[in-house]
Amino acid sequence: MIWAMNAVQVLLLILLAPLxxxxxxxxxxxxxxxxxxxxxxxxxxxxxxFRKEDLVPASASFVFRLAPIVLFATTLVVAxxxxxxxxxxxxxxxxxxxxxxxxxxxxRFFLMLGAIDGGSSFGGMGASREALVSxxxxxxxxxxxxxxxxxxxxxxxxGIVQWTVGQNFFQFSAVHALAFVALALxxxxxxxxxxxxxxxxxxxxxxIHEAMVLEYSGPSLALIEWASAIKLTVVxxxxxxxxxxxxxxxxxTAAALAIAALVLLxxxxxxxxxxxxxxxxxxxxxxxxxxxxxxxxSALAILAVVFTALMR
Amino acid sequence: xxxFESAAARALASSGVFLFMTVLLIAxxxxxxxxxxxxxxxxxxxxxxxxxxxxxxxxxxxxxxxxMVLTVKVAAIPYALYRxxxxxxxxxxxxxxxxxxxxxFIAAGLILLSFFAVRPYVGVLGGDQAMLAAAVALVxxxxxxxxxxxxxxxxxxxxxxxxxxxFLAALATTxxxxxxxxxxxxxxxxxxxxxxxxxxxxxxxxxxxxxxxKLRRLRG
Amino acid sequence: xxxxAFSLFLVATLSVPVVTLISRRWTKARALPAxxxxxxxxxxxxxxxxxxWDGQRFTVEVSQVASFSFALSxxxxxxxxxxxxxxxxxxxxxxxxxxIPRHYSGARRDWLWVLLPLFLMSMxxxxxxxxxxxxxxxxELMTLFSAGLIVIDGDSEERRHNIFIYLLMMHAGAAAxxxxxxxxxxxxxxxxEMRASATLMTPALRTxxxxxxxxxxxxxxxxxxxxxxxxxxxxxxxxxxxALMSGIMLKTAIYGLVRFAFDFLGGGPSWWGYLALLAxxxxxxxxxxxxxxEHDLKRLLAYHSVENIGIIYLGLGAALVFMANHAAVxxxxxxxxxxxxxxxHAIFKSLLFLGAxxxxxxxxxxxxxxxxxxxxxxxxxxxxxxxxxCSIVGLPLFNGFVSEWLTFRSFLAGSELTDLSAAIVLPLAxxxxxxxxxxxxxxxxxxxxxxxxxxxxxxxxxSANEVSWPMQAGMLLLxxxxxxxxxxxxxxxxxxxxxxxxxxxxxxxxQAAALLSAVLPWIALFVLVLVAGMAAFKRAKKxxxxxxxxxxxxxxxxxxxxxxxxxxxxxVFSQVYKADRTLNVIPADQPYFPASISxxxxxxxxxxxxxxxxxxxxxxxxxxxxxxxxxxxxxxxLLYIFAALIALLxxxxxx
Lengths: 312, 220, 655
Prior knowledge:
Oligomer: heterotrimer
Order of helices and strands of chain A: HHEHHHHHHHHH
Number of helices of chain A: 11
Strand content of chain A: under 5%
Mean pLDDT of chain C: 89
Radius of gyration of chain C: 27 Å
Largest sheet of chain A: none
Distance between the termini of chain A: 38 Å
Structural class of chain A: mainly alpha
Number of helices of chain C: 24
Structural class of chain C: mainly alpha
Shape of chain A: globular
Order of helices and strands of chain C: HHEEHHHHHHHHHHHHHHHHHHHEHEEHH
Helix content of chain A: 55-70%
Distance between the termini of chain C: 56 Å
Mean pLDDT of chain A: 90
Number of strands of chain A: 1
Number of domains of chain C: 3
C-alpha cells in the first residue's frame, strides 16, 4: 500500500511538472500585462519535440546524445526522494540529502559535457558559466540541508519531514528560518530562474542554461526541457516538505489524502505566485554578481549550521 | 489560554529569530529605502515584545511605552526618512564599502560574537538568551552600518538600529526603563532625525554629494 | 600456506630485475619481465586478499639472515595497503608492457624494468614492515627508486632542478619520520614493542611524536604547505610511473600516519584532529584551485592529488576528534571513509594518469589547448577516462562518491557530540568538502570536455589513433574497479569495518554505511534500465553542422579553450592566483589597431614567494656565515679537534 502511494507521488511530480512551468509563465505574462500562452503549452511543446528527429552535429560523440538521458534519469531518481502527500517517499529510508545533492550534480555534469560536445562557442560559454554557478551553489545547498538534518537527527529527507510534522508550527526556530532563506536562494540558482539566470532569453550576454541546450533538438531537447521542469517542481516540493509540511496525511485513508492534496495545491500555488512576482519585479544579476548572491546564501547556511550547536 | 494566545506566546518567544533575520537582511540591503523598511519592521517586533511583557506584568506604563514606540519608531521616523530620501533626488543606493555577501558574513560573525559574549550572563541577568544576543547583535550591527556605509542618511539609520538594540537590551534585562526616561529617549531620537533631515539638505547643497567618506576637512 | 605464498611473492618480484638483466639480448623474451611481474602481483593480490578479507596474519623474519632487526608482518591494515598496491599495480604493469617498448628502447627500457619492480618492492616493504629499521629502509628506497625512474625520462636542466627539489623535500620528511621513530627509544625494536611503550609515554612526548610524524608523513603525502614537490615531480615522470607515484606512493604516507596516530599512539587530544582537519581543508581547497588554472594535463592531475590527500586528511582529522571525544562508532565511520578514499583515489588517479599517457602516446602532447575531439578517435580510452573523471568528482554510481558520502556522514554525526567546538567545526567541514567537490566537478568538466569533446584543435589531435590493446586492457581493468566499488561498495566496506574495529577499540561500523550499500545497486539498476530503454527508443538522428548563427566558417578555434573555461572561477578566487601580468602593445599609425600585442602572465604559487624563499634565503645566509669556520688554516683545525676533546672531558667530569 505504501509502495503504491510512493509510486503515485513520483508520478504526480513527473506528470504535473510541465503544468507548474506553464502556470508560472502564464502568471508572469499576466503580471507583465500580456495575455500569455496557455498553461498547457509545455505539454504540447514536449509532445511536438518527441515527434521530431534529433539533429546531431557531425563532430559530436556519444556523450552528446547520452547527456539528456542521464540528466532525465537522475532527475527522475531525485523526484523519488521527496514526500508529497504522505510522510514517506519511494527512496525513503535511504534517500539521504547528500545523495540527492550529488545526483543533481551528476545530471548537471553530463549536461555540461553535452554542451561542450556541441562544438560551438555557446556550449562552452554556457558550460563555463554553469560551472561557476553550480560550484558556488553546492556548499550552501549541502550546509542548509545539513542544518535541518542535524535538528531532526536523521539524514533522510523523509525522516526530516516526519520529524518536522511533529513540531509545533508557531515555534519558529532560527535554524529553520536561516536554512529556509538559504535554500530559497540556492533553489533560484539551481533551477536557473531570475535573478540568477533567465529561462526565456537567448541573448548570449544573459544565457546560462539556455546556452548549454542551444545545439539540442527533437527528443533530446524534449528530455532536457522536461527534466528541468521536473527539477523546478521537485525543488519547490522539497522546500515545502522540509519547512511547511503540516497538512500531510498521517494515515492512508482517502479523506486524509484528499485534504493533503488540497493543502499541497494551496502551498504550491502560493510558492508559484511568489516566484512569478519575484521574477517580474527583480532584474537579473550581472554574472559576476552571482557569486555575491550565492555568498549571502553561504553565510546564512553557515550561520544556520552554527546555530544548531548554539541553540541546543 | 486559547489557541491565539498560545500561538502568540510561542511566536513572541522566538522573536529573536525575526530580529536576526532583519540584522542579516539590513546588512545585505542595497537600497536606503530597504534599510528604512527593515528598521521599521524591527521596531514593530520590539513593540510586540513590549506589549507582551506589559500584558504579562499588567502594567499600563508598558502599554503607553508600546504605543509611543509604535507611533514614533514604526511610523513617524521611517515616514520622515522616506520623505527625505524622495526629496533629495539623489541616487538611492547605500554606497557600501563592502559587497553584500561580505557584509552578510560580517553580520553573521557579529551575531555569533554576541551569542558568545552573552553566554556567561544568561543565568545571572535572567533574560532569554536569544533576546539578549539579539540586543547585542543589533548594537554591533548599528555600529557596523555606521562604519561601512558612506551615505549620510545611512549614518542615521545605523544610529537608529543601535538605539533599538540598547532599548531591547533594557527590555530583556529589566523589563523596560521608567516611563519618563523612555519618553526622553524617544524625543531625543525625534529631534536627532529632524536635525539630520535639515542638515542633509545643507550638506548636499554645499558639497553636491552625500558621501561621508569625502568630508575630511576637519583634520590637523 | 599464505606465508609461503607471501615469501613467493617477494622472491618473484625481486627476481624480475635479474630476469631483465639476463634476458636483455633476447628479442623474443621482451615481454618476459612484464609477464613475470604481473604473475607475482597476482600472487600478491591473493595473499593480501587473504589477509584483508579473512583476517589472516603472517610474518616473515629476516633477522636471522641479516644482522639487524628486519621483519615483515602482515596484519589487516598492512593487508589492506598491500592489496591496494598490488591490485593497482597490476593494470599499470599491463599497460606498461606496451607503453614502455613504444617509448623507450635499449638501456633505458631495461633500466625501467629493473627499477619498477624494485620500486614496488620498496613500497611493499614500507607497508609490511614490522620493525622500525625495515620501515625506514623501505621509505628511503622508495624515494631513491622513484627518482631513478624519473631520471630515465630525460636529464635537462629544468628536470634536474625539479628532481633536486623532490629529493630534498623527501629527505626532510624522512628526517622527521626518523625523529618520530627515534623518540620511541630505547624500546624501538619492532612495532609491538613500540605499541606497548607508547602507553607509558608522557603527553608531551606523545605530542612530539605525533607532530614529527604529521610533518614527516605530510611531506610525503603532499599536504599544503609541504606539497611543493608534487607538481614538480609527478608530471615529469613517465606516465605509468606517475600513476604509481600518485596512486600508491602517496598512500604509504597515509599508512604511516594511520600506524602512528591510531595504532601506536591510540588517538590523542582534540587539537590533533583539528590540525589534521585544517591541513586537509586547506590542501583540498588550494589543490583544486591551483588545478583549475592549469592546462598541462599531468600537472593538473598532480594538483588534484593534493586535493584528494586533503579529503583523506579531513576524514582522518574527524576520526581523531571523535576518538578524543570517546565516540568510537563515529571514529570508525570517519576512519573507514578515509581508508576507502585511499583505495578509491589510487584506482581512479592511476586510471587518469594512464589515460594521460595514452593521450600523449596518440597525440604527443599533453597541453589541453592542443587537444579536442579525441572521443571519436579513441573510443575506449575516452570512455574509461570519462569513468575516471566521474569517479574523481565523486558522482554517484562511481567509487569516489562512496568515500565522500561516508565522510559527509561522519561530519553530520559530529553534531551529536557534546563538545561545542567539535559540534560546530565538524559540520562546517562538510561545507568545505562540498566546495571542494563542486570545484573538482568544474575542473574535470573542463578537462574531459576540452580534451575529448568538441572538435580537434590541432593536427595531432585530428590524427590520433586508439592505443594498443594491453594499454586499453590495463585502463579497462581500473575502470571496471571504479564502477564495481561504486555500485557494490559492500564488497570492501565489511572488511574495512573489521579493520577499523581492530584499530579503534570498541568501534563498530554504524548502520548508515549498510543502508548506502543497499540503495546504490537499485539506483544503478534503475538508471541503467532507463538509459537502455531510451537508447532503444531512439529516433533516427540526422547529422548536421554545428549551429553558427547561420554564418559559414565555424572552425575549431572558436570553441572554448581550457583557460577560457576556467576564467570565471579564477576571477572569483582571484585572491589565490596573484599573477604577474605584463602587456606589451606596439602601436601602429592608426589608433585601435596596434602592430602587435603580447601578453604574458606568470603565476608563482604564493607559498614559494612567502614561505619557501625567505626560509631558503635565511638558511643560505646562515650557511655563508658559518663558512668562516673553514679558514683553511691547519692549526685552526687542530685547535677545533683539541677544543672538542677538552669539552668532552669537562662534560664527562661534571655530568
